[in-house]
Backbone:
């Protein structure tokens, strides 16, 4: 609809009449209407892309050092860095650990907060308001501020249950689930609230249990917000560095963030830049894939959640 | 699976009608509105509760073995409560809230409370254990070899991997075959026959232990030198890799005066319960202290100690500037580009969008490290490209500008995305109406588009501010807080409060867990106040609770 009005208005203003004007004026007018938009877009794209071009050329540069890297590779192109990445570091382990931890934490935290958001949105119970407020309050104390306490608590857990202690992906995953409620619950509750009550009420009248209403009716309808929160949780967990660095110290237990930072430490910093860049490109693959897969949900999900708070 | 009365059906009631279970009596239910128990639902319930029971049993054994009865009680009660909750038909909201809440309590609330209690102690390096631990540590570390010290043949062994396992000393009493095993906890005799004693009294094999050969032992010679085995009269230490001596403690605790005396110099250090350390008359403190409650002193130290309050205030101001700068600049740039691309006459917006949001899809930890190296003085892309030789991270203001620029690059695609979405939600008729009324583009943007955008995006701006306020990665992976003033290596120009806290707790110098926890609480209070004020101002509360 907007397309139609937009085209009609501009067409009426400078359509047939514009043909008779001189071309210079027309070009000026085109620039004022559309051209500057392309200029801004192009500048934005340039800003977005130049560090990425730098990474790509560093990854393909056979010399593989920071000092030899240029924006455009002139010294030839090779995949040597990718080979070295797997041969000289535990990149494959880190990659799998990250996928396991980030994928598992994203999936579980989305599920847990969807459960809570359903209760907060559809049910009225004692302590609901207090519950919502305390979620907001607790979430203001970011989990990693308590890193000292977490470190000490997990020291005991490692003694008792080494399977979920330090240097295991499972312990880190559980730790991340501590923050599963909170912001996501609020975002999802806002989205649940926009769905008409009549949907689940009629299902209840038809004899559906609350579990059936949740799994069969609500979850499919809130797919956009599930996709968005899942993506955000995945990105945040992949990038989480502070807790993972305290938690994972064995080389083969590390996640990508911890392991790859180690590549650029100390004297190796300059020489490892090429394989680091190769690792960066590989690390981006899962996120970009999830991103492409969920893209149609992202804009609508983010804004509808945002409007509702 | 439960009653429609207490389930989602209760949502039909007006809010505030009263407790959920005051509805009509259960007997009035007809067969039709009684939700049937489905086979799939039952199976899911059995499997999940079976899993809970299995995990509980698995978790119980180590607790019993370690005799942690409080922990076991918590475990049993939690499991019982879960079974009661999910086997019954009541408490439907709780069924949905408990799973997430359990994790929230275990890994967020408990650590936060633990942090809060730590903030009132002097917990940290030198103040880790009890007073008795401190006395043992002081005595054993003062052990000297004195004339007449007993010498023992020594074998070093581990209880696992030779390269990483915990070390023990195996020593043989001279002239006999009695073998004792010693570690930091003390010396215990080994069962006769459990160890094989070779020529010269050296132990060659022992049940349950791996005796290190010479190569393995010399690889860990530092650990061996550091190992002190307390004994009744002093302590055992190694001298070389094959001999141990029992030395006398030069410093000894005297319960009568509650002090530590040095038998060489005659100096005494008296226990001071306020600071948790032994203090001499001239003010000298022994390094090993113990953990005591220090009340509010960690908090007052931040405010009154000039060496801390000055840099702390500077860090706080920069922290606000960083959060506002990052959020504001990303919002402005993202919105400008969204506005530019938001026109029915624009072609290729999908392509623009795809390329623009690429930074958002890249792993930010890696890109932060890439940016750090792009700002490298000698080989960095920025200096190379523009022919500069700026030491970006060496000066206060260039370092600050650099980290904000990096945040702008990482963050504006997100703002662009959400601004695009919000713009699409604003009806075009509104801006068209203003142009009919003769408003310029700028006027209609100021009067219509911007306010509507801000209404839609203010919750996101607030949460973005809160996120950036504690954006650990942004600083730690780029400047690590640098540049530091010459006289204060613990608080740099780009340090945020969170990176400062991390350095206090896990940095190179002595860990100050108590002080770090106090600063965490300061950060919490600041973020909480800012968030509450801004949420109130945007009146989101009212809308959300409706």
Residues:
């Amino acid at each position: 609809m907007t397309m139609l009005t937009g085209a009609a208005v501009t067409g009426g203003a400078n359509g047939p009449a514009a043909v008779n004007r001189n071309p210079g004026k027309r070009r000026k007018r085109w620039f004022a209407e559309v051209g500057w938009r392309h200029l801004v877009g192009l500048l934005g794209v340039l800003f977005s892309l130049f560090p990425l071009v730098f990474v790509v050329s560093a990854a393909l540069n056979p010399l593989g050092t920071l000092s030899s890297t240029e924006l455009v590779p002139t010294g030839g192109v090779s995949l040597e860095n990718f080979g070295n990445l797997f041969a000289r570091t535990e990149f494959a382990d880190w990659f799998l650990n990250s996928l396991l931890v980030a994928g598992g934490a994203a999936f579980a935290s989305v599920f847990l907060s969807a459960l809570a958001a359903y209760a907060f949105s559809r049910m009225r119970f004692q302590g609901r308001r207090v519950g919502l407020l305390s979620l907001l309050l607790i979430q203001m104390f970011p989990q990693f501020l308590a890193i000292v306490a977490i470190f000490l608590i997990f020291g005991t857990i490692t003694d008792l249950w080494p399977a979920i202690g330090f240097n295991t992906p499972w312990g880190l995953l559980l730790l991340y689930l501590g923050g599963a409620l909170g912001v996501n619950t609020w975002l999802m509750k806002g989205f649940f609230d926009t769905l008409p009550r009549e949907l689940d009420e009629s299902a209840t009248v038809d004899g559906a249990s609350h579990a059936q209403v949740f799994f069969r009716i609500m979850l499919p309808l809130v797919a956009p917000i599930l996709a968005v929160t899942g993506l955000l949780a995945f990105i945040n967990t992949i990038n989480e560095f502070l807790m993972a660095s305290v938690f994972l110290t064995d080389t083969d237990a590390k996640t990508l963030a911890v392991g790859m930072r180690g590549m650029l430490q100390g004297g190796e910093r300059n020489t490892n830049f090429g394989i680091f860049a190769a690792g960066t490109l590989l690390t981006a693959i899962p996120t970009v894939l999830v991103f492409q897969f969920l893209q149609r949900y992202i804009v609508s999900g983010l804004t509808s959640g945002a409007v509702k708070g | 699976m439960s009653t429609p009365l207490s389930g989602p059906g209760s949502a039909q009631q007006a809010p505030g009608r009263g407790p959920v279970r005051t509805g009509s009596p259960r007997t009035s239910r007809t067969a039709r509105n009684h939700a049937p128990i489905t086979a799939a639902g039952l199976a899911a319930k059995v499997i999940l509760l079976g899993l809970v029971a299995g995990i509980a049993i698995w978790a119980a054994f180590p607790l019993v073995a370690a005799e942690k009865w409080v922990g076991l009680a918590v475990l049993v009660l939690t499991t019982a409560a879960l079974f009661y909750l999910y086997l019954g038909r009541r408490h439907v909201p709780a069924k949905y809230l408990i799973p997430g809440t359990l994790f929230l309590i275990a890994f967020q609330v408990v650590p936060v409370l633990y942090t809060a209690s730590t903030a009132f102690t002097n917990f940290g390096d030198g103040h880790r254990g009890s007073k008795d631990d401190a006395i043992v540590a002081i005595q054993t570390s003062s052990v000297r070899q004195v004339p007449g010290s007993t010498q023992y043949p020594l074998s070093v062994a581990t209880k696992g991997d030779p390269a990483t396992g915990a070390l023990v000393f195996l020593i043989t009493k001279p002239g006999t075959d009695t073998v004792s095993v010693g570690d930091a906890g003390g010396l215990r005799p080994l069962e006769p026959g459990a160890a094989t004693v070779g020529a010269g009294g050296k132990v060659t094999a022992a049940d349950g232990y791996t005796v290190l050969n010479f190569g393995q032992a010399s690889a860990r010679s530092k650990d061996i030198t550091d190992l002190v085995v307390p004994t009744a009269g002093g302590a055992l230490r190694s001298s070389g890799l094959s001999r141990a001596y029992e030395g006398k403690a030069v410093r000894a605790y005297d319960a009568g005066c509650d002090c530590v005396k040095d038998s060489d110099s005659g100096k005494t250090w008296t226990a001071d319960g306020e600071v948790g350390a032994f203090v001499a008359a001239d003010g000298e403190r022994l390094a090993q202290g113990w953990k005591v409650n220090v009340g509010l002193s960690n908090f007052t130290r931040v405010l009154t100690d000039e060496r801390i309050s000055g840099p702390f205030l500077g860090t706080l101001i920069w922290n606000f500037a960083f959060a506002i700068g990052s959020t504001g600049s990303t919002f402005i740039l993202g919105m400008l580009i969204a506005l530019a691309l938001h026109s029915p006459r624009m072609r290729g917006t999908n392509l623009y969008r795809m390329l623009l949001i690429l930074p958002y899809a890249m792993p930010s930890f890696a890109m932060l490290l890439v940016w750090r190296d792009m700002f490298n003085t000698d080989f960095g892309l920025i200096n190379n490209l523009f022919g500069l030789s700026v030491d970006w991270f060496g000066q206060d203001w260039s370092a600050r500008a650099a980290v904000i620029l990096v945040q702008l690059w990482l963050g504006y695609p997100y703002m662009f995305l959400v601004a695009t979405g919000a713009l699409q939600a604003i009806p075009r008729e509104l801006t068209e109406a203003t142009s009919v009324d003769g408003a310029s583009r700028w006027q209609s943007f100021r009067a219509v588009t911007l306010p509507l955008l801000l209404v839609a995006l203010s919750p996101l701006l607030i949460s973005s501010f809160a996120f950036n306020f504690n954006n650990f990665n942004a600083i730690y992976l780029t400047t690590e807080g640098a540049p530091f003033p010459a006289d204060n290596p613990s608080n740099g120009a780009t340090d945020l409060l969170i990176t400062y806290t991390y350095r206090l707790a896990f940095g190179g110098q002595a860990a100050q867990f108590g002080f770090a926890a106090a600063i965490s609480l300061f950060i919490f209070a600041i973020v909480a106040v800012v968030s509450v004020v801004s949420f109130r101002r945007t009146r989101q509360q009212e809308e959300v609770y409706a």
Notes: Confidence is low (pLDDT under 50) at residues 1-33, 540-546 of chain B.
